[in-house]
Amino acid sequence: MADFYSVLGVSKSATEADIKRAYRKLALQWHPDRNKTAQAAEKFKEINKAYEVIGDPKKRETYDQYGEAAFSQGAGFGGGQGPFGGGAQTGRYGPFTYTYSTSGGANPFEGVDFGGFSDPFDIFEQFFGGASPFGGRAQTRRKIYRINIDFMEAVKGVEKTVEVEGKKQTIKIPGGVDDDTRVRFGDFDILISVSPHPTFKREGYDLVVDKEISFSQAALGDVVTVPTIDGDLSLKIQPGTDSGTLIRLRGKGVHQVRGGGRGDQYVRVKINIPNNLTSRQKELLREFENESKRKKGWF
Predict the structure, then answer these.
(1) Which run of H or E residues covers position 270?
(2) How far is the C-alpha of 129 from the C-alpha of 180, rounded, in Å?
(3) For 162-186, how does the pLDDT look when each residue is reduced to its tens digit (9 = 90+)?
(4) For residue range 2-44, what is the model confidence (pLDDT) as tens digits?
(5) Contact 119, 102 (CB under 8 A)
(6) Which residues contact 9 (CB under 8 A, 6 or more apart)?
(7) Do 120 and 8 have their domain in common?
(8) Residue 56: burial class (beta carbons within 10 Å; 0-12, 13-18, 19+)
(9) 83: in domain
(10) In angstroms, rounded to a whole number, what is the distance separating the alpha carbons of residues 31 and 42?
(11) CA-to-CA distance for 107 and 110, rounded, in angstroms?
(12) Which residues form the domain of 180?
């Protein structure tokens, strides 16, 4: 396995905040509920293993001194199985295999910050919607309630008043949630359903919008108005733009649920070819075509 710092894409001098930020980004990018590639499961496991160690100051210090071998079962640290004593347990959860250490029955992840989750139990509950494979307290079943919100409420965040077991409660849904996101509130969870939007298509934290332009706008260039979730924006179309061109609007996508970043918005240009042309329009197009042929003939 690669160096843990390399796995998270940070330097050995990275701060705890840098490591946490890198972990959050990679965990969201590679968790298999969102990433359907064949390598996603193994990559997700690597990311969590790396963060479990270098995300904790004490374990990071040991790793910097002894390397990954310090965390292997059977490593020679005080007669234990790893530098923290206890043993290692392995198992499988769906397509994932996992290994974790125990310390005389204590929570092996106590004091470790897993990128906004309290521990790996929360990661499995949030990402996979099921009980943790690790056992213990995560096996306690929590009641789940589903709520429907519209697209803009999901990307911007919203407060909803709901009735749970006869009691009205106000829940705050953070901006950036997506369809089937599971959010924890007190002793119950909310499973979110998001209505699709007629204009914005969501790809993770990125957005895609189709923009139709005329043939002349594509050929000559123009400034057009495109929608964003923050309001309309003027966009310059370069001369000679092809149909299907994607124009990137950096930072105009969805706010990340954890962290301060935003995705991007992509404007997909579609050239509108009119079905019914006037006689004059046809004449002008023929002149254009003839002029193009003569120009080519000069060379």
Answers:
(1) strand 265-272
(2) 9
(3) 888 888 889 999 999 998 888 888 7
(4) 689 999 999 988 898 889 889 988 988 888 777 888 888 888 8
(5) no
(6) 22, 26
(7) yes
(8) buried
(9) yes
(10) 10
(11) 5
(12) 144-194
